[in-house]
Amino acid sequence: MSATPRLRSGYPSTPGTAAPRRNIQETPSSVGSVSSKASFNKSTTLPLAPEQAARQNQAGQPLIPLTLLDAPQQRFYAFAVYVLLWAWKLYDWLKVVEEGDSSWWLFLKWIFIDFAFLFGLPELRIPWLELSQLLVTSVFTSHLVINYMLMFNIPLPWQSFFLGLAKVLYDRELSISEQNVKISNILNNHSLIMGKQIINILPEGSAVLNPEQMPYCIPANSKNGISLPIYFNSTIPAQIELIHVDLDTNKEKTIKISSREVNKIAKHIKDQSADPETAGFKWEYTVNRAGVYRLGKVLDTYQLEIQRGTKDTYVVDCPQARILAADSSQRCINDLSDLSLEVKGTPPLKIVYSRTINGKNHGFHFQSLQPDGFSSPLLGSAADILPDGGEDVSWVRPARVTVSLNESMVKSGTYQYSVDEVHDAFGNQVKYSENVDGLDQASARDRVKTFAVKNRPTVRMHGCDLRNALKVPKRTSKSLPIDLRVDDSAPGTTHQVEWKFSPIDTLTNNGDHGDHVTVGSFSSKDSKAMPKVSAPGLYTLTSVSSGSCEGEIDEPSTCLLLNPLEPHLSVRAEEIPDKCAGNSIGLRVNLDLVGSPPFKVHYDIVGSDGHVEPKVHSVQGLRSQLELIPRDSSRQRYIFKSISDSVYENIPLTGQDMTLEQEVKPAAQASFAHANQNSNVCLDSNVDLDVTLRGEPPFNLEWELVHDGKRKTERVTGLESSSYTIRTPTFTRGGEYILALSSVQDQRGCKTFLQDQVKIAVRRQRPRGAFGLIDQKHTIMAVDNNDRVRLPLRLQGDGPWTISYRNLNDSAGTITRQVDQPNGVLTVNSRGVYELLDVRDTHCPGTVDPTGSTFQVDWYPRPEISIVETDSVSKTGSVFVKQEVCEGDIDGFEVHLQGSPPYRVDYKVHQRSPQGAKAISPREFDAALSRAAISMDTSKAGEYTYEFHGLSDNLYNADPKGKVLTVQQRVNAKPAATFTKPGQHFKFCMEEQEHEDKIPLTLTGVAPFFVEVEIKHQTGSPVETYHVPSINSNSYAMQIPRKHLRLGSQQLRIRRVRDARGCQQKYDVGGPSIQIQLYDAPSIYPLESREDYCVGERIAYTLSGTPPFDISYEFNGKWNAKSQTTSFRRVAEKPGDFTITSISDKASECRASVRLPKAIHPLPSVQISRGKQSQADIHEGGKVDILFEFWGTPPFEFTFTRSTNAKKGQKSVILETRHDISYEHSKIVTASQEGTYEVVAIKDKFCSYSTQQTDKRDKK
User: Fold this and answer.
1) What is the dihedral of CA 318, 323, 324, 326, to 10 degrees?
2) Tell me, what's the pLDDT at 156?
3) Using CA atoms, how far apart are residues 532 and 517, in angstroms rounded to an integer?
4) CA separation (Å) from 558 to 498, 515, 521, 753?
5) What would the pLDDT profile of 1165-1206 be if each residue is shown by its tens digit?
6) Is 37 a residue whose pLDDT tops 50?
7) What value does the CA radius of gyration of the chain take, rounded to a whole number of Å?
8) In angstroms, rounded to a whole number, what is the distance separating the alpha carbons of residues 623 and 619?
9) Residue 211, preceding peptide bond in cis (omega within 30° of 0)
10) Minimal CA–CA distance to 479: which of 495, 465, 462, 496?
11) Strand, coil or helix: what is 375?
């Protein structure tokens, strides 16, 4: 069916719906458009690939998805935005019309807004609004033209019609106080006629109990009771009876008011009747018992029964509420609150309570609280009526309802439950939050319950589990490593931990608890305390508690305690023999250990002199070997004292095998006292070497000195000391020497061959030093530019060298320097004769060559610059001052140069403008001769300072610290005369005005000034010249005499200005100019000749001149108003004297002084009964005096009506209309007929006001 051709419908298809959509239904129009296109436009090309088709469909979809906002809604919102923009634009246009001016800002604003809307609308791709670029550009161009016409106040053909329509819709006019007011608001002033007099013919008297049907309740423990109001109207009671129905027994009881009390009521009613403004009398009767109250029999003074209301008044006990909770104030996290609310009162009840957790309040309420099976008329439909008299009132009795609050407390902290309010069925409410101070301590305890919710403790084993057992020595105890965590326990809280224990020999093969299990516990107020245990076995935590909170057991919860074996040591020793003498030189001890590695073996070495030296031997495994070799011959004992392992500490060792003895005689030994004792020695010097001897003295020592393959052996015998110093012979030849120890022999005669030796390096020659030559001389001429002069040195030896020298021309003394290179340099910075005194290399002292021991240094002279003084140059201190010149004059000066040409001079020109701005211009020039001319800068006015800071010649660069030559000159600015507002149009009148504008001139220079002005008339008159010979200030308000001006337009141009310093400036073409227009003054005429007006009337004038006009007038002050037309009209908003004082128009701005006074009178006003609604109740035949008070100008004419008294649901009807006149400001009219008396119209000497006209206007 989709391929059947269809005719196009009356509406174009929606482009956005032509593509298949899955999330929305296709409209019939969209389906038709697809089939029509498929049948009439068959394409011969291949279809698009699925990816390209999907991409094109996605690109053609609206920017706002149709699933979010369908196409008609998008079009509606776009049109709505367009309409709102036009409304905003017309509002701006109305403001432009009212102000009578144009606005570039509004024009540019609406260009931007229209551009954003019109060019942004196609980007939304809204179906049917996908406008082409050409159409959008055309519409934007039309909007641009309309915006120009609107915002520049260009009259439009339909402008008058639109302004008239706006006037109808916007009924506001300008008042005399220049505010937009509504005339209807001025005329609809209901305060002009105020007050009513209502006269009621009293019917039979009445008495009503609680006419407002207010609920009443008696507070608990109240001693004063409550007061029930009884209203008496138009009667004096003589007997009053009340009926009370008891809520418990349902029995009625008659309460008779005492005669004494009734007489008091009668007296009060009589006293009150003297005040005509009061209606009825209220008497309050105090009751102390709950129940149902109604009026019984009420008789007046004539013993006639008074009409009474039969409604019942229910007095019940005030509702109460309290919180029932357990005595404990402690809770644990995740416990239930275990609270209940007990509410007492007349059901159904409502309670409002608060739950505060850590200071954060949460409010809750329960309503419709009632006992099971409870029924009440208050729970019926709206048609049910409360029973009145004789019926069962058991439903009024108070009931007690309990509500359980079992809430899980998932947060720790302070919880507080408090009862805030409680309501009963009658609307009685008790707010405990407002009466906290009035509650006793017991009541406050029942209304507020506070308790603390604590976190539950957690416990686990720390550092001990089944894989990492806790090893404890036998017969000792150790803390069970438990980690107890209690976050917020209070001080003094007891913490208890329980565990189960199985001895080590009762554990199962899997390592679990066996049949023999005991339970242990530990209590402490310190959460860091740990229980002490000593028995080996398996400990498993079972429970933990902190205070009243049971805790949780975390893993690991099991700890295995073991008692390892005590460590044991076995010692086996053997002697270490001497190969020469055959005696022992020490012991080799084998140690076998049992226990828990690592071990520490403590033993003492006791010498033959009884000296004890404690030693510790560490063993990481179960076996170790220890060699005990003493250094000296002695008898020693080795006593093994104790052993420690990773579990046991200082286990004593006993037994004879723990003590070893030996007598040691070690072989003789000799060695140099300092290892690495190689030496570097200078020629003609020797060296001392210390040797240490060991053995039994006396010693015989042999050594050899080897040099160039030759050996020299030396020997010393009979040495009794353990040390000896070998002194070498003096070395007269350089080279490398080796001193080697050959052998040593002690008392036993065993010779020990030695291998210790040292190397001695002897220098082959002494170090030498001298100055080198520069150009075959020991002299140099240098440039004094603070650079250092490098004097060459020639050094021999091993660097670095230390040299000492002095300047013979300086008293600084001897200077010592270090030089690293043999051809190094000595850097100096002053001239003089330098002499080398001493040379020393890194090891040895040296000698100075006499032929090169001195070197002379001298400087070339520096260049200098100076000023060639003339009559125009004077010197002030160190600064040269050049004579002042005017801006643009040619001036200069000469400088004198000394030195080695060519020269290069660097100087800066500091310019300081008269406004304080500073500029620095660096400059330079080259000179080949000793004189140079410098042109001075006079192109701009200001203070010029020429600082010559850099002078360099063929030898020297510019010295930054050299003396600065300074030349100053003041360049006086050319005087300038400009109009303060150039190009401004000045408007003058043919006659001079009181406050006439003057042409402000701004002059620059030194007063007095001379100014020449040219006046060119556009009427063809010849050009005139006007001179201002002496202007003594820099600002001048110029007035052109009227004889130099012509009616119409003329141009005023400045031609020449000269100041007191003689500087002059001429303005040729394009000089400062202004336009002057000469006008006649406008005029104003009133449309009416009368001078008295009323508030709300319009005062109109006609104007002559060119609009817009500016009108000045006086009305409770001075005001200015504008008129865009040749008419001026204002609404008289307030009374007062209105006087127009002057007028000016836009073309001339000439103000014509006038005086057109008008008197505005207030509207008359009247009040009945002093502006209030007074009600008088009289009996048939009585009279009431009605007081009329007037404000305005007498005489007063007024109209008042008598209408029926208003009743609910009925409209008041006018019964009669009266007209009267008063020549005073008050009048009394006597009335005796029932009705409502009110004034409808008032008129004084000048003005009138009527409420009937106001009502007609309101209806329209």
Assistant:
1) -160
2) 66
3) 18
4) 12, 17, 15, 69
5) 999 988 888 888 765 666 888 999 999 999 999 999 999 888
6) no
7) 63
8) 7
9) no
10) 462
11) coil
* DSSP state string for 776-805: TBSEEEEE-SSPPEEEEEEEESSSSEEEEE
Pick from 218, 245, 216: which is nearest to 388 by CA? Answer: 245
Q: What DSSP character marks residue 810?
A: -
Distance CA 326, CA 338 (A): 7
CA separation for the pair 1156, 1089 (Å, rounded):
10
Highest-scoring range by mean pLDDT, 203-207, 492-496, 700-704: 700-704
Of the candidates 1142, 1140, 1032, 1040, the residue with the CA atom closest to the CA atom of residue 1082: 1142
**For residues 424 and 350, what is the distance between their CA atoms, to the nearest angstrom?**
6
Q: How many CB atoms lie within 10 A of CB 93?
A: 22
Are 292 and 314 spatial neighbours (Cβ–Cβ below 8 Å)?
yes
pLDDT bucket at 24, cuts 50 / 70 / 90: very low
pLDDT one-digit tens code per residue, 604-656: 888 877 788 898 888 888 888 888 877 777 788 888 888 888 888 888 988 88
Q: Angle 913-919-923 (CA atoms, 0-180°, nearest 5)?
A: 125
Would you state the pLDDT for residue 129?
A: 80
CB atoms within 10 A of CB 134: 8
DSSP letter, residue 1205: P
What is the sign of the dihedral through the CA atoms of 380, 386, 392 and 396? positive
Could you read off the pLDDT of 954-989 as tens digits, one per residue?
888 888 888 889 999 988 888 888 888 887 888 888
Residues 327-365 have pLDDT tens digits of 677 788 888 878 888 899 989 888 888 888 888 877 777
Residues 6+ apart with CB under 8 A from 207: 230, 231, 232, 233, 235, 237, 240, 295, 298, 306, 307, 308, 309
List for the chain the helix, strand, coil content (%; round to 5).
15, 45, 40
Contacts of 80 (CB under 8 A, 6+ apart): none
Task: Show the tokens assigned to 1211.
Answer: 């409209």
Q: What angle do CA 500, 506, 510 make, to 5 degrees?
A: 90
Does a cis peptide bond (omega within 30 degrees of 0) precede residue 564? no
Q: Is the pLDDT of residue 381 over 60?
A: no
Locus of tokens 């670029």: 133
Distances (CA, A) of 768 to 131, 791, 847, 852, 1222: 104, 17, 5, 11, 145
Distant-in-sequence, close-in-space partners of 538: CB < 8 Å, separation ≥ 6: 501, 502, 504, 507, 511, 512, 513, 558, 559, 560, 561
Of the chain, the percentage scoring pLDDT greater than 90 comes to: 10
User: In 133-205, which ranges are continuous DSSP H helix?
Assistant: 133-151, 159-169, 183-187
Count of alpha carbons within 13 Å of 1023, Cβ hemisphere only?
A: 9
Phi, psi for residue 842 in degrees, rounded to 5? -65, -20
Neighbouring-strand partners of residue 1241: 1199, 1250
Q: Tell me the two tokens of residue 626.
A: 């220890």
Helices 104-120, 71-99: axis angle to 10 degrees equals 170
Q: CA 449 → CA 328, 419, 964, distances in Å?
A: 11, 9, 92
Residue 306 DSSP SS3: coil
- Residue 327's region, left for phi above 0, alpha for psi from -120 to 50, else beta, is alpha
Query: Across-strand partners of 1050?
Result: 1017, 1076
Residues in the chain: 1260
How far are the Cα atoms of 930, 948, 1082 from residue 894, in angstroms, in the given order? 10, 13, 71
Residue 489 tokens read as: 């326990």
Alpha helices in 523-663 (DSSP H): none
CA 364 from centre of chain: 36
If DSSP codes are grouped into helix, strand and coil, which group holds residue 422? strand
